[in-house]
From TrEMBL:
SUPFAM superfamilies: PYP-like sensor domain (PAS domain)
Keyword Membrane listed: yes
Ranges annotated as spanning the membrane: 36-57, 69-88
Keywords, in A-Z order: Membrane, Transmembrane, Transmembrane helix
Protein name per Swiss-Prot or TrEMBL: PAS fold-containing protein
One Pfam assignment: PAS_4
All residue ranges annotated as the PAS fold-4 domain in the record: 159-261
Gene3D superfamilies given in the database record: PAS domain
Length: 271
């Protein structure tokens, strides 16, 4: 008990270990109460056994009175109650306490943030509560960081110059930047064939070539904007693989080089 109290005092001096102080102090009280209950149960059982033997000895010489029967019942209870207490304690230890200890250890290992110090005092499972709250806080922070990073990269992707899109293996546009969706009036989830005004996806499409070769492709492609304006695009397509090495999508980037080619032709012929 002195050792436990010393540990509690040392932990109490650290402002970051208020939760641990509460837990150890309550565990110390629980340990004393348990030892006292066991000692009382053993004493109660032994006393009941002695009185039961005396009553049985008296019953052999004379009939039992109603008061003797009550004492006999009390003695039987004094003997059986500790047995039930032992069985109940054993079952609780094996079926409840040990699984909770394992769950507490697992939850503690999952978390890496400091333990919260403000835990409701009415909770009996302090260790499990603190570990689960800690792991929940860490998980929430990680999810928030992941969401922020995703928003950051998504804003970069949406603002990229040119016409950028991500096409899956079924030739469906999964993602596209703002310029792509505004220029071609195609929302995410539609087939990429509408960009090139093809009747069916595939064929001589650079995305289809990437799906077959699984290698990056850079080509020039003539086409038309939705308003009928002719265009010459420099199309760059790169494959996207998952963690297992399977091809899952392709990133296509289109740059309109019509004006560049026209300027080169004019400078070449001097017109």
């Amino acid at each position: 008990m002195i050792l436990n109290m010393n540990r509690c005092v040392l932990l109490c001096r650290n402002e970051h270990t208020g939760g641990y102080f509460l837990l150890l102090f309550r565990n110390a009280k629980f340990s004393i109460a348990t030892k006292f209950a066991v000692a009382a149960a053993i004493f109660f059982s032994c006393s009941g056994l002695v009185v039961l033997c005396a009553l049985l000895t008296l019953a052999a010489s004379s009939p039992l009175t109603p008061m003797d029967i009550l004492w006999l019942m009390a003695c039987c209870a004094a003997i059986t109650v500790p047995c039930f207490y032992y069985l109940f304690n054993k079952l609780c230890r094996g079926m409840v306490c040990r699984p909770l200890e394992a769950l507490t250890y697992t939850a503690t290992e999952l978390g890496s943030a400091p333990l919260p110090t403000e835990i409701p005092k009415e909770f009996e499972l302090d260790a499990l509560t603190m570990a689960l709250v800690r792991s929940g806080e860490v998980f929430s922070r990680r999810m928030q960081n992941a969401t922020e990073r995703r928003s950051y990269f998504e804003s970069l992707f949406k603002g990229m110059p040119g016409y950028v899109s991500v096409v899956d293996t079924s030739f469906t546009i999964v993602h596209a930047n703002n310029a792509f969706m505004e220029t071609f009036a195609i929302a995410e989830g539609r087939s990429c064939r509408h960009v090139c005004t093809r009747e069916f996806p595939g064929g001589n499409c650079p995305v289809a070539k990437v799906f077959i070769s699984q290698e990056p492709v850079v080509v020039t492609e003539e086409g038309m904007y939705p308003d009928g304006t002719a265009a010459l695009w420099l199309v760059s397509v790169s494959p996207v693989f998952d963690a297992m090495g399977q091809l899952t999508a392709a990133i296509e980037s289109r740059l309109d080089i019509s004006e560049v080619v026209k300027a080169d032709v004019c400078s070449l012929y001097g017109t």
